[in-house]
Amino acid sequence: MAVASTMFSLSLPSFDNDAVHVRRAAEIADASAGMSSPHPNYGCVIARGKEVVGEGYLYAEGTKCAELQAVEMARDKARGAIAFLNLEPGDSYGNNKSVVSLIQAGIERVVIGLRHPLQHLRGKAINILQSQGMQVNVIGDDLQMNSIQSYEEALKSCLLVNAPLLYGTAFGVPYSVTKYAMTLDGKIACTSGHSSWISSKLSRNKVFDLRGRSDAVIVGGNTVRLDDPHLTARHGGTHVPVRMVMSRTLSLPNEANLWNVDDGYTIVLTQRGARKNFQELLRSKGVEVIEFDVLNPREVMEYCYSRGYLSVLWECGGELAASAIGAGVIHKVYAFVSPKIIGGKNAPSPVGELGMVEMSQALNLMDVSFEQIGRDMLISGFLQPIPDMIPVIPFKNDTTSIDPMVTSYDANIIFFYKTWDSYGVFSNFSPHSIHMPDKNGQDYEWSTVEHYYQSQKFIGQTDLTTVHDFVEQIKLAKSPEAAARLARMLQKKHSNLVRSDWESVKIDIMYSALKCKFSTYPHLKALLLSTAGSVLVEASPHDLFWGGGRDGEGLNYLGRLLMQLRAELLSGDLSTCET
Q1: Calpha distance 158→506 (Å, rounded)
Q2: Mean pLDDT value of segment 446-468
């Protein structure tokens, strides 16, 4: 996909410098992980060539923005310099301070790793900077046109540092990580339940770091009963994640380390009506209790997202871990493997029953990493890929030239395919008859656009009797599916009767039929006009000519013709039904 026309191209010698500085911006942004929620992790680097003259990152919610910090550090050296940001600035407080800081400092050019994933902020800061005559490059956009290794690495660092925001925006749940420590034979505890300690102290320090990067940590009732954890970060930082316990029955001890809210805030999540007296006991200790009609990981994650949590760490046993993985709310796995063997037929494993009976059903991790920590090995990887927030628009550049109201990176995509979908009437199969005259001026009524389109494959051939018979058969087909099926069969068996110019005229024929359909039915015209500014994609996973395909690899000619028709309707330049 091509970049938007407002983007400036970079010269080759600047690629490496840009990538290095953007990666540095992502690196320093990572210092705020766990503290800036619900805001993204922002970092800003100001450089002159290879020399860094200013840096800053968003410390926490409500603190000075990264751009202003970097400008203040750079002072006079900011004028004429380049600013590098891991993420497009977001106007969180209504004063555009981050963007204004760069403009007032005299920054000459801005290089951004990613556009902002939130729709109401995406492109806003970029447009302001460009309106002030500033050159802006977006690495995430440039990679749509050029595959450059240094850019790919820089982009990956930007994606990783704001993975919580990207997952939350895409799926409406926090970015969730599960971690566990297991022996070489796959056990997380002895048969007795004893588990202290499987992993080394160095590995446990890594876990403290994971907690410190999280907004909340979740355990199940078994973990509270058997381990009595504190779930504090214990890393000397100021951030302590919310500690959450999931228990349907509330069969929990009256005294537990988690009930001491001086160490950190605790929330107990349970099923409605469970042990009311115990709920009151917890509340008297300062523990918050939340009741769910049905307690499950999906409901809990949606609730956490509604509270503004972006990152959640699951430190639970195998049964709850399996439930969370099965619910599709776990995005990354950290497995600490210790070179120990304890055996035990009934010793617990890190993930309980997932219902798999064949190895082909196994969940494969993506982007797997290996790290040796003392004698332990840390294996980590994603269960779900980091979402790409750039809209996948088939033939994006062509789409924007068809309808100038569509802006590539801010576009809303409307998919249509089956006639019962919200915009299903855009389909050729919708039950809207059209009257199309033939070349002799004789008016014919066709049950659907598809009936008409398929019949035109045989028009104009010399074998008039056979062709007329084919056209009549297609015209009388009981459904558009039947008409398409019949026409394809006839086309295959009697290829000599297919008009020689079919491939060159079929788009024009389709467009004529669409014009007739939307000029005949006012409510269809109104619906089409209501989509102004949106990209229309025929969502057929199989038809890569008229449809957009599974991953945007199709040509999407039906969607493109509808957008062209929409543009003509909006301009008032539309003729009536014609051949």
Answers
A1: 45
A2: 86
pLDDT tops 60 at residue 356: yes
d(CA 522, CA 516): 11
**Is 445 among the residues known to form the active site?**
no
294 to 247, 297, 309, 396: CA distances (angstroms): 11, 10, 21, 43
Q: Is the distance from CB of 115 to CB of 90 less than 8 angstroms?
A: no
3-state secondary structure of 83: strand
Dump the DSSP string for 34-46.
TTSTTS---EEEE
Q: How far from 268 is each of 4, 133, 228, 230, CA to CA, in Å?
A: 49, 53, 14, 14
Q: Which CATH number fits domain 396-571: 1.10.357.40, 3.40.50.300, 2.130.10.10, 1.10.10.10?
A: 1.10.357.40
Contacts of 542-550 spanning 24+ positions with Cβ under 8 A: 546/510, 547/417, 548/394, 548/415, 549/394
* Percent of the chain residues past pLDDT 90, beyond the cut: 55
The candidate with the shortest Cα–Cα distance to 388, out of 90, 163, 556, is 163
Q: Are 21 and 74 in contact (CB under 8 A)?
A: no
Q: What are the tens digits of pLDDT across the range 335-348?
A: 999 999 988 888 88
Catalytic residue among 55, 67, 88, 538: 67
Say yes or no to pLDDT of 9 above 50.
no
Q: Is it true that 12-161 and 396-571 share their CATH fold?
A: no
Going by CATH, does the domain composed of 12-161 fall within 3.90.1010.10?
no
CA quadruple 103, 109, 114, 117: dihedral sign: positive
pTM, rounded to two decimals: 0.69
* Domain 167-382 coded CATH 3.40.430.10: yes
Which tens digits make up the pLDDT trace of 113-167?
A: 999 988 788 888 998 999 999 999 888 776 554 557 787 888 899 999 999 999 9
Name the token pair of 392: 């996948």
Return mean pLDDT, the chain: 86
pLDDT band at 298 (very low <50, low <70, confident <90, very high): very high
Closest C-alpha to 560, from 438, 397, 330:
397
